[in-house]
Amino acid sequence: xxxxxxxxxxxxxxxxxxxxxxxxxxxxxxxxxxxxxxxxxxxxxxxxxxxxxxxxxxxxxxxxxxxxxxxxxxxxxxxxxxxxxxxxxxxxxxxxxxxxxxxxxxxxxxxxxxxxxxxxxxx
Length: 123
Fold this sequence. Notes:
By secondary structure, the chain is mainly alpha-helical. It contains seven helices and three strands, in the order ααβααββααα. Helix content is 45%, strand content 10%.
């Protein structure tokens, strides 16, 4: 957009748009979505500490469906920081209802999750 086009849009702006522009120029706009600080995935111990619960309680929350684990390596799980922040704020985690557990994906695709690949040959 050229400067002339920008000026034309400014002159044609409604009063609400002009107020919004003024807020931006006067730095009165607050950030509607705060940036998440830290890792996107958190280990079980760090997640439990973040929520102020024990690891056993964290696993109960996962089993109850309140949180969804992500298997990063066979037997190694992480939790999404956004899910933990939502639970801490008393909101439901932002996931689609009925979404399959990501840790189940290798079994659905027919790839082994543990051990060698010979288990596919026997099947």
